[in-house]
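hey so u asked for the seq, here:
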Amino acid sequence: MLVEGRADNVNQCFLEASRFGSTELVRVLLHIAQRNSLDVDVDLALGFASHYCKLGTMKCLVEEGNAIAFLGPLMRAAERGCMQVVQWFVKRGCRDIELCLALTAATSSSQVEVAAYLLPCVPSPVLTALSIEILKAAGERSGGSKKKMGHMFKFLCFSCSVVSRTSKSL
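ran it, structure tokens below
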């Protein structure tokens, strides 16, 4: 019946299954879509699964569905302070710029724990080169509050010095 309804029904069921973390249903719908040449939006599904912290479904979407759009879900998780999802994406492998953008999102949302986790993941030369840009972007995202900007500046300066000292001792 799903296949007769074509892609709209399959994709809608697929997205809902991803949102609710129904990994087995996601897997079945992926196979149905592949066998019948139907399009399902795996990247949007990854966004839903990550928003609701459905790690098993996220793994399925990446490994079996070939989802590749990590940036949006990673940034939203950093912004919301969802450490499990941020760690999952980082362990999967993120580009330096994705890590910087996630750090910006966490910093601008005062998600100190997530920002502290992301900071050592960003290579020191990249962090040093982009710290001013991270502050600017975080300031824009946070509404430019001077108090918040001061807090972010202190946090980044302290963190850059810690990262720098740590990398020198290695």
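The radius of gyration is 19 Å. Residues 146-169 form the longest helix (24 residues).
lmk if thats what u needed
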